[in-house]
């Protein structure tokens, strides 16, 4: 049983939190933030119009998804945070599982010795599983994900399909 726990990917979670990996992730986050378009350009109401046909919708969406990708990522991130803040039980379950896995992995495979008992890592993972699964079902993560997918899709594809491409790109396509 201990071989199963040691080969379990959650036990390696703390190893993945190395300082070099965090620096790399922060660097990629900074490059994404630098690609953000200004709000004046993103919310330019003069460029909003109804597309004439489906071909124009496809053209607008393909252009705007590339051009405003960092802005769309920010919108999806904000909606994700909103979904977690409005579903506090799901947020609690995520923090409980994350904290439990980190706490158990910090034991380094040793038993947790309490004044009244001794608990092995497999018992700790089982206890975390027994508590987290029923709470996870009560937190309704599937409906939260469906809401997040739907609201993100409407916001991103709605903006991408109604926002016209700049005039300069129209001339570049015809040449």
From TrEMBL:
<protein>
    <recommendedName>
        <fullName>PRA1 family protein</fullName>
    </recommendedName>
</protein>
<keyword id="KW-0472">Membrane</keyword>
<dbReference type="GO" id="GO:0016020">
    <property type="term" value="C:membrane"/>
</dbReference>
<feature type="transmembrane region" description="Helical">
    <location>
        <begin position="72"/>
        <end position="104"/>
    </location>
</feature>
<keyword id="KW-0812">Transmembrane</keyword>
<dbReference type="InterPro" id="IPR004895">
    <property type="entry name" value="Prenylated_rab_accept_PRA1"/>
</dbReference>
<feature type="transmembrane region" description="Helical">
    <location>
        <begin position="124"/>
        <end position="149"/>
    </location>
</feature>
<comment type="similarity">
    <text>Belongs to the PRA1 family.</text>
</comment>
<dbReference type="Pfam" id="PF03208">
    <property type="entry name" value="PRA1"/>
</dbReference>
<dbReference type="GO" id="GO:0005794">
    <property type="term" value="C:Golgi apparatus"/>
</dbReference>
<keyword id="KW-1133">Transmembrane helix</keyword>
């Amino acid at each position: 049983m201990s071989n199963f726990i040691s080969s379990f990917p959650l036990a390696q979670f703390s190893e993945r939190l190395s300082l070099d990996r965090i620096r790399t992730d922060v660097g990629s986050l900074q490059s994404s933030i630098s690609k953000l378009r200004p709000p004046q350009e993103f919310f330019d109401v003069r460029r909003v119009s109804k597309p004439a046909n489906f071909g124009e919708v496809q053209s607008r969406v393909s252009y705007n998804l590339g051009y405003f990708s960092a802005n769309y990522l920010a919108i999806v991130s904000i909606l994700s945070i909103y979904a977690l803040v409005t579903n506090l039980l799901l947020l609690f379950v995520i923090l409980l599982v994350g904290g439990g896995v980190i706490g158990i992995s910090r034991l380094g495979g040793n038993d947790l010795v309490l004044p009244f008992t001794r608990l092995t890592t497999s018992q700790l993972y089982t206890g975390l599983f027994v508590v987290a699964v029923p709470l996870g079902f009560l937190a309704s993560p599937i409906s939260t994900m469906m809401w997040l997918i739907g609201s993100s899709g409407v916001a991103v594809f709605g903006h991408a399909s109604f926002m016209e491409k700049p005039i300069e790109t129209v001339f570049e396509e015809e040449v």
